[in-house]
Amino acid sequence: MTGGTQLKLLVTFSSGEKAALKPMRQPRDYETPADLFYFNDYERHNAEIAAFHLSRLLGFHWAPPVAGRRLNITAEVLLRTKNAELIQTFFSSPAGNMCFHGECAMYCDSAHAVCGRPDVIEASLAAMLPPLHVAPRHTWLHPWRRTYSKHQTKAVWEVYDKYCQFITKVFPYSQVQRLLDLVDMAVLDFLIGNMDRHHYETFANFGTDSFPLLIDQAKGFGKSTHDEMTILAPLYQCCIIRETTHLRLIALERDELELGSKLKFSMRRDTLDPVLTEQHLHAVNRRLRKVIAVVGQCILETNTQSVVINGN
Ligand SMILES: Nc1ncnc2c1ncn2[C@@H]1O[C@H](COP(=O)(O)OP(=O)(O)OP(=O)(O)O)[C@@H](O)[C@H]1O
Ligand SMILES: [Mn+2]
Fold first, then answer.
1. Where do the domains of the chain lie?
2. Is-cis flag, bond preceding 136, omega within 30?
3. What is the predicted pLDDT for the residue at 205?
């Protein structure tokens, strides 16, 4: 797959259906080092799978379905692809395993190859959206995007408290619906720990009524003991949340079966079960309580009617 910074393959099934494949790069319990910037972090196939399941539990049905698979890279990639450049990147490692690195803007060289055991790998497969000529999409810069710079590490919204008052004057955020969508997206990203939401896409034909698509959650689930509060900036700076989302978060928090357990249960039938470590499932429960506390703080500072918005 061209486009994007890290290795992805476009897979075609015998039925003709297509999927975007992200290979496993590191063990599930590998924690992102503290000195690594979010933009240098590897993508995690299991984060894509888990984020899809979690988005459904939250009632955000905006993510293409993602499932885990084990595949043989010799039989199912090397011997099937007609892409000569991809074939060129295959090699046998010193340990005798089959590896490849593909082509992309980052981490596509022999030092960062994907290696099988001896040629079997784990991967996430996301169902491809309809092609652009069928369902054209619009790409938007995320107003709360980070800087992606090692020198200038803070964006305007990180230093300017009143950023939301500025953004609500700008189209399409002057319409509360899109802002509420971004708050929902921030809640999901906070629960998974995804700091890498630089752009988002909508279906062009639906105009400003389109929900934002949840594509690319692969930077989630990198740090199980850290809760990155700044991901919630759209929530705590605007102090608004959709009523249905708020009610669902509270219901999930009060349920005897914790959200982490629901997530585990939801992913039980995935080929790659267990998709998440217990530490990451615990982190989801802990973060859910933090989201609800942030909403509670907003309500304390203003009032319920202005924070919890219904009908949108
Ligand atoms: N399931 C999908 N259906 C259709 N298009 C997709 C799908 N997944 C990814 N894409 C397209 O490929 C692009 C890159 O995918 P993704 O963001 O997952 O990779 P990435 O390497 O992290 O890219 P970036 O570094 O730009 O964020 C997306 O912006 C999207 O346009
Ligand atoms: Mn990405």
1. 9-30+66-127, 134-309
2. no
3. 96
**Cα torsion 145, 41, 263, 266: sign:** positive
According to DSSP, the residues that pair with 91 across neighbouring strands are 99
pTM score, two decimals?
A: 0.97
CA dist list (Å): 286 to 57, 158, 277, 298: 16, 24, 15, 19
Q: Are 225 and 286 in contact (CB under 8 A)?
A: no
Quickly state the pLDDT bin for 311 (edges 50, 70, 90): confident
Residue to substitute in 7, 21, 216, 217 for testing ligand 1 pocket (most ligand atoms within 8 angstroms of CB):
216
Binding site, annotated residues for ATP: 6, 22, 43, 126-129, 201, 216
Which atom of ligand 1 lies closest to the CA of 1? Answer: 12
Residue 303 has pLDDT above 90, yes or no: no
Q: How do residues 19-43 score in pLDDT, each as one tens digit?
A: 999 999 999 999 999 999 999 999 9
Q: Compute, in angstroms, the gap from residue 2 CA to the centroid of ligand 1.
A: 9
ipTM of this complex: 0.96
> Is the Cβ atom of 77 under 6 angstroms away from ligand 1?
no
